[in-house]
Amino acid sequence: MPKNAAIEQEDGYGLQISPPNRDRLNSVINPSSPPSGLFIAGEWVETRERIPVLQKYTGETLGTIAAAGPDHLESAVAAARKAFPAFARMPAHQRSAILEKASLLLRAHQEPMAKWIAMETGKALKFARLEAERAADTFHLSSQEACRIHGETLPMDAVRSGEGLLGFWQRKPLGVIAAITPFNFPLNLVSHKVAPALAAGNTVVLKPSEVTPYSAAFLCRILEEAGLPAGCLNLVHGAGSAIGSALVEHRGTDMITFTGSAAVGKAILARAGIKRTTLELGNASPVVIAEDADLRRAAAKCALGANYCSGQVCISTQRIYAEAKIAEAFMELLLEETARLKVGDPLDEVTDVGPMISEREATRVAAWIGEAKMDGARVRHGEERKGAVHYPTVLDRVKPGMKVVDEEVFGPVVSVIPCRDFPEALRQADDSRYALQASVFTRDIERAFRAISDLGFGGIIINDTPHMRPDHIPYGGNRQSGLGREGPRFAIEEMTRIQMIQFRTAYPN
Predict the structure, then answer these.
(1) Which of the four pLDDT bands, split at 50, 70 and 90, describes residue 34?
(2) Cβ pair 392, 306 in contact under 8 A
(3) Which of 280, 337, 361, 486 is an active site residue?
(4) Is 280 part of the annotated catalytic residue set?
(5) Taking the model in full, what pTM does it have?
(6) What is the C-alpha separation between 46 and 217, in angstroms, rounded?
(7) Helices and strands counted in the chain (H then E)
(8) What angle do CA 275, 276, 281 make, to 5 degrees?
């Protein structure tokens, strides 16, 4: 099939998705001319104040983006509020068709999108391609869910006070969604907020990370081409401390959906007021290795799970608790698998691990390792740093109280901790203020269900690492890892309100 042929098909409801103009299609993702403005009320707006965007491996400037000021933020919120009533009334099949067309356009532009992701994040191209593919999946799933939003009837006469009433409830969009997204998945995490919000009939003001803004800007172009009405999606750039905070506090926003650190999440809760809030926050992802596990497979999975995206993933493998009988054997295999990873230019096809988002972050990770060493930890592999590139690092002899154990490292660092038995490994794995996702490697079904019972995490993965996130699952954490759930179906539930209707059909005798 020709690369762009996929966009010439029906949307599943008998409506023809018209192929976009070929010249426009080629200009949606222009490798030499990324979108640099704000996107407000369907128009691209440039500003005098600019924010440089760096190629994270070379450090060269890719370009600049427009920095939003207070007036731009006001205009973006006003545009979203103005567009909301008509968009909320748009038939579900029409919203679905727009999202499906966006999904098809994302697939048609997967390769250039992946290259921009790799350049602006430092993520290895092979994983950037996967992110671009997943973003298309997220829009496709949201397109389907747009036509599944429903309520139900209630048996009103279940109680005496309900006699003579017909009752049902339905879901209605909340209004204007403020979406604040991080740098590590600049396309798919944006998609996980924007696509469900639009599927439900909400409008959006989006503030992506200012260090990785181009993926979000390209997505705005794609939705513009897909036929999204003006004002339904608005894009503002700027620092979280300024534009992000103002967006959180703005009276014109009805919900905040945020992915980022626990510290910022707490600040958002304190400042948002009485407003719906979904928070996807941090983790210190544990993995438990039972003595009966397939150690080679577990080691290969953990080496990748700890280091893809340079460990800058909230479900990156960080703490590995191995039963004492097999701990050293597992460590040797983990060291072998970690040594296989190729570190270098993310645009190189063979690269597994590229740079971190900045040299400052790489320096922080190195400092945390240094603190752990001073407190008795041992480096078994890695520790080297060159600019923003921090090499995959494996530690042992770590203990609670060290940052590399208690806090989210958000870098390519993993620790192996021997435990006397399986129950003790589960206890230590669960001993964390975070609880997003955890995993267990075992071939024993009883052990697997013991882990499911004992681990209080939002997600449990058996025989793979915590970074597993198929895009339709209910994804979210407990404790300090956040509030609410994402995944199109579940995000839509967060982004809608229940409206109860009661009809008096008869009067009780």
Answers:
(1) confident
(2) yes
(3) 280
(4) yes
(5) 0.93
(6) 13
(7) 16, 24
(8) 115
Please give the distance of CA 24 from its chain centroid, rounded to a whole number.
29
Residues of the chain with CATH 3.40.309.10: 286-474
- Nearest to residue 214, comparing CAs of 103, 65, 108? 65
| Catalytic-role residue among 314, 408, 419, 494 | 314
Pairing of strands 319-323, 286-289: parallel
**What number does CATH give the domain 286-474?**
3.40.309.10
Q: Which residues contact 171 (CB under 8 A, 6 or more apart)?
A: 149, 150, 151, 200, 492, 493, 496, 497, 498, 499
* Tens digits of residue pLDDT in 136-158: 999 999 999 999 999 999 999 99
Strand partners, 322: 289, 418
Report the DSSP pairing between strands 50-54 and 203-207: unpaired
Digit-coded pLDDT (tens) for 235-293: 999 998 899 999 999 999 999 999 999 999 999 999 999 999 999 999 999 999 999 99
pLDDT at 402 over 60: yes
Q: Which superfamily does CATH assign the domain made up of 38-46+66-281+483-496 to? A: Aldehyde Dehydrogenase; Chain A, domain 1 (3.40.605.10)
Based on the residue annotation, tell me whether 314 is a catalytic residue of this protein. yes
Return residue ranges of the chain for CATH 3.40.605.10: 38-46+66-281+483-496
